[in-house]
Design brief:
This is EAL domain-containing protein. Keywords: Kinase, Transferase. By secondary structure, the chain is α/β, with parallel strands linked by helices. It has one domain: TIM Barrel (Alpha-Beta Barrel). It is built from eleven helices and ten strands. The protein has an eight-stranded mixed barrel with strand order 1-2-4-5-6-7-8-9, surrounded by five helices. Strand 8, helix 10 and strand 9 form a beta-alpha-beta unit. Helix 3 runs parallel beside helix 5 and helix 8 packs across helix 9. The N and C termini lie far apart (46 Å). Bound molecules: guanosine-5'-monophosphate (G) (2 copies), manganese (II) ion and sodium ion (NA). Manganese (II) ion (MN) binds next to loops. One guanosine-5'-monophosphate binds next to strand 2, helix 2 and helix 3.
């Protein structure tokens, strides 16, 4: 209850912040996009990770409001970078299950794009496997509506859910994000390596884009390159950065 009051207060006092982590082409190292990651700058406890407070936001029904703030802020930021003369880049925003169930989600996304003056092609929405597996028919419909706006859809944490690969054909997703747990184990465990290899082969066969997350070293990068993974995200290239730092990085690599 105390935490709930704090979360309301956090919204009122603007204590939420977005960090941005680069997503780069695995072969060329060219920056392709950034993922917006939510943080809570708590006045006493400092920076808090979403793993600690997103479940609470969901419990007290605040996730749609905070999620909408994330979406709008990320779109405004992407537009602001363009205004500053930086090359257009894709910004990826995570959607929670609760947010996805908002009856006005599609309007909300359209409004965020319009208000920011951002072309839909620059926005990617990340959905999780568990999210899209619940309520399949309704979810597929909502996904098609989002696709009609012109945004792209990616499937986050891929491989951690039911990961029935055949499911993928039924969902209008543009790319999959291989979960960091497989990337971490890939160079040590043959089973993880085999999984990454078959996920990538399947994605290529289905014409889906691919990104591996949690890439921390050159061995992992080398392996992913050999398997033709398109993009990587991870500490090897950059940690998630606050807006001033990511803006500087964007200027440096332009
Ligand atoms: O940034 P970090 O690794 O601490 O994120 C932990 C988890 O929180 C990740 O699974 C990430 O997808 C999730 N997350 C981060 N930002 C957001 C957000 O804005 N909305 C939702 N729904 N999840 C987020
Ligand atoms: O689930 P999602 O992909 O949205 O979450 C991304 C999370 O992964 C972020 O919280 C980010 O901080 C974390 N992350 C990003 N790159 C790395 C990495 O190279 N290693 C580890 N351990 N975590 C990472
Ligand atoms: Mn994500
Ligand atoms: Na993920």
């Amino acid at each position: 209850v105390e935490m709930e009051a704090e979360l309301y207060r956090a919204l009122e006092r603007d204590e939420f912040e977005l960090y941005y982590q680069p997503q780069v082409n695995a072969r060329t190292g060219v920056l392709a996009g950034v993922e917006a990651l939510l943080r809570w700058r708590h006045p006493q406890r400092g920076l808090i990770s979403p793993g600690e407070f997103i479940p609470l936001l969901e419990e007290c029904g605040l996730m749609p409001r905070v999620g909408t703030w994330v979406l709008r802020t990320a779109c405004l930021q992407a537009s602001e970078w363009q205004r500053q003369g930086l090359p257009p880049l894709r910004v990826a925003v995570n959607l929670s299950a609760q947010q996805f169930r908002m009856s006005n989600l599609v309007e909300c996304v359209q409004q965020a794009l319009d208000d920011a003056g951002l072309a839909a092609e620059h926005l990617e929405l990340e959905l999780t496997e568990s999210l899209i597996l619940e309520n399949a028919e309704q979810t597929i419909q909502a996904m098609h509506q989002l696709k009609k706006l012109g945004v792209s859809l990616s499937l986050d944490d891929f491989g951690t859910g039911y990961s029935s690969l055949s499911y993928l054909r039924r969902y209008p997703v543009d790319r999959i994000k291989i979960d960091q747990s497989f990337v971490r184990d890939m160079t040590e465990h043959r089973s993880s390596a085999a999984l990454v290899r078959s996920i990538l082969a399947m994605a290529h066969n289905l014409g889906l884009g691919t990104i591996a997350e949690g890439v921390e070293n050159d061995t992992q990068l080398g392996y992913l390159r050999k398997l033709d993974c398109q993009e990587i995200q991870g500490f090897l290239f950059s940690r998630p950065l606050p807006v001033e730092e990511i803006t500087q990085l964007l200027r440096d690599v332009r």
